[in-house]
Amino acid sequence: MLGAQALQCRGLLLPGARPGLAASRRGSSSRDKDRSVSVSGSVPMPAGGKGSRTNCSQATPQKVPNRLINEKSPYLQQHAYNPVDWYPWGQEAFDKARKENKPIFLSVGYSTCHWCHMMEEESFQNEEIGRLLNEDFVSVKVDREERPDVDKVYMTFVQATSNGGGWPMNVWLTPNLQPFVGGTYFPPEDGLTRVGFHTVLQRIREQWKQNKNTLLENSQRVTTALLARSEISMGDRQLPPSAATMNSRCFQQLDEGYDEEYGGFAEAPKFPTPVILSFLFSYWLSHRLTQDGSRAQQMALHTLKMMANGGIRDHVGQGFHRYSTDRQWHVPHFEKMLYDQAQLAVAYSQAFQISGDEFYSDVAKGILQYVTRNLSHRSGGFYSAEDADSPPERGIRPKEGAFYVWTVKEVQQLLPEPVPGATEPLTSGQLLMKHYGLTEAGNISSNQDPKGELHGQNVLTVRYSLELTAARFGLDVDAVRTLLNTGLEKLFQARKHRPKPHLDSKMLAAWNGLMVSGYAVTGAVLGLERLINYAINCAKFLKRHMFDVASGRLMRTCYAGSGGTVEHSNPPCWGFLEDYAFVVRGLLDLYEATQESAWLEWALRLQDTQDRLFWDSQGGGYFCSEAELGAGLPLRLKDDQDGAEPSANSVSAHNLLRLHGFTGHKDWMDKCVCLLIAFSERMRRVPVALPEMVRALSAHQQTLKQIVICGDPQAKDTKALLQCVHSIYIPNKVLILADGDPSSFLSRQLPFLSTLRRLEDRATAYIYGSQVCSLPVTEPCELRKLLHQ
User: Fold this and answer.
1) What share of residues in the chain are helix, strand, coil (percent, to 5)?
2) pLDDT band at 632; cut points 50, 70, 90
3) Residue 37 clears pLDDT 50, i.e. is over it
4) Where are stretches of biased composition, namely Polar residues (predicted)?
5) What are residue 777's phi and psi, to 5 degrees?
6) Residues 337-379: pLDDT tens digits?
7) Which residues on neighbouring strands pair with residue 733, listed in sequence order?
8) What is the DSSP string of 578-604?
9) Cβ count near 381 (within 10 Å)
């Protein structure tokens, strides 16, 4: 009923218009897709479909920029030379719509989105479409990464009325910002079974003139229904659900959808979804003596190994692409997102803690090597993403994946050296091509390349173990490893000469917070001080460039300026819930990695600000945006899905538990309980949609361990005990250093710390859990035994 009200609009859509594809609950939610799924008659195409385009919105002497030329967002600037009279999201556009009584055309995307590029080239550069938009609509362009609140509100509408979603997202609004029709990618003109963007604009124009009152009434009904559907509140519930029940149901749902052969939890497209892997590791730890526990560990480790061997990982330059278009993790959608790198670095570090297999630690180090090299700003912050598309050669139209794929001829020319000791004539190039599955015809199937742009091209994907490749040619395993690494380095050097993908140089507080965690956790687990230093520098960057001391508020965005400077929009874009939640998590991880209490103190201050700006004192949980910032939007939402990024409410639940463990402040424990109660109905209904929150529920009901190390921070015995803790997978803990100073920050928060003593003047560990304290120990081996109990 809701979809019919919103979409039919008295004959707006052509017969046969096809609805969007349903969004999977297992990671491929609307916020994970930039595909051509559409409500209003776009053409369904393969995820990550390959389409050529001209360079986006290049300025020529004949073109006059629109007002987006003054915006900082790389995505908005890509549209600055369109013939469309674009407005950024703001009061100027809303006032114009009300004054001229025109509907608002809202178009949302982001700068590394392939289908956003396609629509910009095909429709927004089109003079006739530009004329239609300028005469009959007020056109507003939004970068979803700058304004996740706007994106989420209208994506909720698109999903509710179409069973699908994605980017670009295009929604028509009343002057009061209520949606009445929406979709995703539209081709410019009609096809046999599709409605083109030109036709859609004409029909909406006519309906606005002839049936405006009906549109307004339908819009109001849809908004009212969405308000009811999206409400998340404690209601009359007194307690959160049983952690044991939610854990079991979440595991069973994941087990049912697991791909036994290739790992992962869907047919295609397949997303990394680190939140699921994190849940499985936690489930294994609490069920490790059971068959289900072993199964959970196997599912997570196998998935991580298959991903790392697949084409979704960039074997030449490291880092992971956004998702795989097939179940084998072979052909990716080639963009690289900062949030994926941050979370996957942690996931692979945890896999190393659990398995002891250096394969996983090497992958984690490779991810961070890529981020350091390609996504870092000199100030310590990190850029958002690299595009999927780039020109194969200078002056040629960009194609998806062009920077990353190889022909057999290219590899043979780069690696012609004979391999000594092989049982048959063999060059370094032939060895690499055998191991990584390169063929003369190319290893990308035609159904993944509908336009034939990647014919003869190959994506590197590990086809054999080192042992099998070595045995095939009668070589030593170490020799094969060296030859392959040397070959990859030569490909990397050759790739430097190709035109590079577009870099989104926007820096987001939330994703930088995730990156603090990525470097801090990996550095602590592997004992690599240089990685921890990157986390420190990123935290300093956040405090220097993205924190307003006077108000205690975070800013959402800043941008790379000329000469290595950092620039801000004016007025600044203030932070959303995810900015606070992810930065607080990063600071807590950084404190545990460094034992520098200044990071913990800042985390407490940010949590206080988060509580003041976002907490729902009546219903429990946190709203995604400040009430003032989202004024005028028809909905104020609470994020209720752990997808490509964890829900900020899920992360906040963990943060509140940890902050209570560090400080003993009861208010934070009470807030955590209220939050879990508010989301309990969602967890009961679809626990697999909130695996990170189910983890928090378990941590709450099992209670966190407080691990206290008494000692001199610089002493070897103190560092040995700390490293022992870091080497073991213990997700539900707080790690505290008590240096014996009763006036220290932590001693003031937890007075019992001042009563703890070192045994025989040696660094000493105490473990508190479930109101019981362990006997003190001084040897890492003794501590390891206690932590494994």
Assistant:
1) 50, 10, 40
2) confident
3) no
4) 52-61
5) -130, 155
6) 999 999 999 999 999 999 999 999 999 999 999 999 999 999 9
7) 705
8) HHHHHHHHHHHHHHHHH--HHHHHHHH
9) 26
The letter for the amino acid at 266 is A
Are the C-beta atoms of residues 171 and 188 closer than 8 Å to each other?
Answer: no
601: which 2 tokens? 């103190």
Q: How far apart are CA 495 and CA 411, in angstroms?
A: 11
Q: Residue 751 is encoded by which pair of tokens?
A: 């007075």
**258 within 8 A of 306, measured Cβ to Cβ:** no
Rg (CA), the chain: 27
User: Taking residues 255-272, what's their average pLDDT?
Assistant: 94
Q: Is the pLDDT at 24 greater than 50, yes or no?
A: no
Token look-up 């949609």 returns 689
Indicate the DSSP class of residue 122. I
Residues 6 or more apart whose Cβ sits within 8 Å of residue 78 = 56, 57, 111, 117, 120
Q: Return the closest-CA partner of residue 645 out of 772, 510, 735, 535.
A: 510
What mean pLDDT comes out for the span 22-34?
37
Contact at 8 Å (CB) between 669 and 727?
Answer: no
Instruction: Read off the tokens for 50.
Output: 């390959």
Nearest to 514 by CA among 593, 441, 568, 579: 579
**What are the start-end ranges of the H helices in 231-337?**
243-257, 274-286, 291-309
* Strands 138-143 and 104-109, sheet pairing: parallel
Check if the beta carbon of residue 250 is closer than 8 Å to that of residue 244: no
Q: What is the pLDDT of residues 443-478, one digit of tens each?
A: 999 888 877 888 999 999 999 999 999 999 999 999
Nearest to 586 by CA among 486, 644, 477, 508: 508
Predicted local confidence at residue 63, as pLDDT: 82
Check if the beta carbon of residue 320 is closer than 8 Å to that of residue 363.
Answer: no
Residue 273 CA, chain-centre distance (Å), reads: 8
Q: In this model, does residue 336 exceed pLDDT 70?
A: yes
What is the distance between the alpha carbons of residues 41 and 727, in angstroms, rounded to a whole number?
53
Structure token digits, residue 378? 């000199």
pTM above 0.90, yes or no: yes
Confidence at residue 771, expressed as pLDDT on a 0 to 100 scale? 74
Got the DSSP string for 452-495? Answer: -TTTT-B-----S-HHHHHHHTT--HHHHHHHHHHHHHHHHHHH
Q: What is the DSSP letter of 300?
A: H
Specify the amino acid at residue 200: V
Amino acid at position 410, single letter? E
> Per the omega criterion (within 30 degrees of 0), is the bond before 731 cis?
no
Dihedral over Cα of 666, 671, 677, 683: its sign: negative
Average pLDDT over residues 514-534: 98
pLDDT of residue 36: 37
Give the angle subtended at the CA of 630 by the CAs of 386 and 587, to the nearest 5°: 55
Residues whose CB falls within 8 Å of the CB of residue 413, separated by 6 or more in sequence, listed in order: 429
CA distance 425 to 408: 17
Residue 658 is encoded by which pair of tokens?
């940890």
Cα 432–chain centre separation: 32
Spatial contact of 162 and 22, defined as CB atoms under 8 Å apart? no
Tokens of 556: 């959402």
